[in-house]
Amino acid sequence: MKFAAWLSLFLLAGSLAGAADYRDFDQPPHDYWKRTPHDRFSRWMTNLYAGRIPLDYGSEKAFVASVLRSLDIPASSQMLVFSTTSLQLSLISPRSPRAIFFNEDVYLGYVVGGKIEIVSVDPDLGGVFYIFDIPRPGQTPHPERATRCMNCHAREDTGYVPGPVVKSVVPGPRGGSLKAFRQEQSGHGIPLDQRFGGWYVTGLANFTNHWGNHIGNSTPQGVQRIPIPPGTQFSYERYLVPHSDVLPQLLHEHQIGFVNRAIEATYRTRTDLAEGNGKLTPAHAAELDQQARALTRYLLFADEVPLPAGGIAGNGEFKREFASVRRIGPGGASLKDFDLRTRLFQYRCSYMIYSLAFQGLPPEMKQRVFTRLAQALDTAKPDKEYAYLPAPEKQSIRGILKATLPELPKNW
C-alpha cells in the first residue's frame, strides 16, 4: 500500500476513533442493559432451561466439550493464553493457561478448576457477556450477565462499545505484564511481530519474530525473552485438544477486528439517526460514508499483513471443521477457502459477512457497505483503492456473494 494511501486511511481511522465516544452505551438510543438480548448464547440458555440441550456432567472436561458441541464451536479452535488478562487472573499462569474457543458469533473461555466465560455477539447490542460455574452432576448451569467485563470490553480497545478484546502482552515471571503491544488496535493488519504475546502458539515453523511462547524479565537493557515451549509447563491432558494452533489465532484476530468495527458502525448509525430524529443530516451521511468505506476495506482484506515466507500449514482438524459450514458459490468456491501461502484466504472477502455482527448493521449502514462492495469489485471500472485484487478474484467474490447472500440488492 502506498504511503499516501496508508496515511489517508490512518487519518480516517483516527478521525472516526476521535469522534466515537460511547461511554453512555447504557443510555438512549442504545439502552444496552434494557434491551432483550437476541444473541446466540441467550437463545442457548432458553433451550437449556427448556430441557432441549443435553450436557455431559461426567467430568469438568466432558462438560466443557458438551457445551462447545451444543454451541457448534469446534474444540479444535482451542487457543491457550497464559497472560493474566481475565477476571480469573488468579487461576491463570504458564502452568495453567486459559483455553479459548470460538465460532463466528460466540467466544468461550475456560480455566481448569475455574469458571466458563462467554462473549456472545448480539446484532444490536454487540458483545453480551456471561460467566458461570461448572455445575456438579444433576445441577443446571446458571450463566449470569457479567457487568465487570465492561471494565475492559467497553473501553479504548473496542472504541467504547461492548465488544471482544484480544491482547498481546509480555507477561512477567510472577504475573502482570511488562509490555503491551498495539493497544486500542485489532485485526488482520496488526504486524506479526506484535502478536501472540502471552499466548501459547503451535504450528509456527515459518515464524521467526513473534512474542508467543515467551515470558519476559526486566533488565537494565530492556525486556529479556524467556522461552516457554507449549506443553512443558502444563499437561495437554487437562485440555480438550493437544495444541494451540496458529491458524485459529490468526482467524481469531481477524474476527475480533471485524466484530468491533461492525459493532462500532451499528452504534454510530444509531447515534446519528437519533440526533437527526430518524433522519441523517448531510454531516451524518458523510460520516457514515466514511465508516462504510473503512468497513468495506476490512471486509476485503485491504490491509492484511502477509504470512511469513513459506506460509503456514494449519491444524488439519480445525481446517476441516471450519470448512464444514462453508457457503458454496459458483464452481464450489467459498469465502472459507484457505490460501495459507501468502495470505489467509483464496478469495479476499471475509466470511464474517455472514455473521450476526454484519447482519445486525442498520440498513443505512449495510446499504452503504453493499454499494462500496459493488464499486470495489467492479472490473469494468476498476477502483484504484482495490487494485491489489485481480479481476478474476473480484469476479469470483461477486459470484460467491450473489449466490450466498440473499439480502444483496437486486441490482447488485
- H and E order: HHHEEEEEEHEEEEEHHHHHH
Q: Give me the Rg, rounded.
A: 21 Å
Number of domains: 2
Q: Spatial order of the strands in the main sheet?
A: 6-5-4-3-2-1-9
Work out the number of β strands: 11
Oligomeric status: single chain
Helix content: 25-40%
Mean pLDDT: 89
Which structural class fits the helix and strand makeup? alpha+beta
- The backbone outline, from C-alpha atoms, is globular
N-end to C-end Cα span = 28 Å
- Describe the biggest sheet? 7 strands, antiparallel
β-strand amount: 5-15%
The residue ranges in which pLDDT falls below 50 over 5 or more consecutive positions are 1-20
Number of helices: 10
What's the short version?
With 412 residues, the chain is α+β, with helices and mostly antiparallel strands. It has 10 helices and 11 strands.
What's the topology here?
Layout: H1 3-19, H2 40-49, H3 60-70, E1 79-81, E2 98-102, E3 106-110, E4 115-122, E5 126-133, E6 144-145, H4 150-153, E7 169-171, E8 177-180, E9 199-200, E10 214-219, E11 222-227, H5 246-275, H6 282-299, H7 316-323, H8 356-359, H9 363-376, H10 391-404
Antiparallel strand pairs: 1-2, 1-9, 2-3, 3-4, 4-5, 5-6, 7-8, 10-11
Helix pairs in contact: 1-6, 5-6, 6-9
